[in-house]
Amino acid sequence: MRVIRIAALAAVGVLVVVAAHAQTSSGGSYQVQQPKGTWQTPGQIQQPTGPWQKPGEIQVPKGIEAVHAEEQPCARRLSVLGDALFAFDKSELRSDAEETLGAVGPEIAKAGAHPLAIEGHTDAIGSDAYNNALSLRRAETVRQWLSSHRFVPANAPIEGYGKTRPIAPNQTPDGRDDPEGRQKNWRVDIVIDTCH
Description:
The protein is of the alpha+beta class. Helix content is 31%, strand content 17%. The protein has a domain at 63-193: CATH 3.30.1330.60. It is elongated and about 90 Å long. 24% of the residues are buried.
């Protein structure tokens, strides 16, 4: 119905333009000329397909979309969104985390045989001690998965930084919770030393 209304409004608009450009006869009246070209007719209205996003729901990227590679002096940092790996407040891998970690492996291999470290990070919810321990457990979980798939050595160093190294605000300027900012801080980084 909406497409028909839009088509009708477009047709009225064309008539107005045609009338404005119509030639005036000597008697002061207008002669409407027939428009040139072909007319378009609206097509069938299509129903959208696929999953619908619920209002307020944060979409969690998976696979390579959840991995951000950053080149730094003497380092290549691969940041993996925590939501793609872990449920809130957990250090066990989600059932669909293998898709994302499987995409990280080739990114590690691109850097070649260099030393690396795995860092865990959290958002600002919870105490420092709790977040430090949680981020360390998450780094350990990622190391175990990557080493079991031969992407990193089993003794690769791990570190848990908790909430001490945010990359986005955990709160909005007026002090309210910022779920999107917290989601970015909740991550595991694989830092590859490209100078050694």
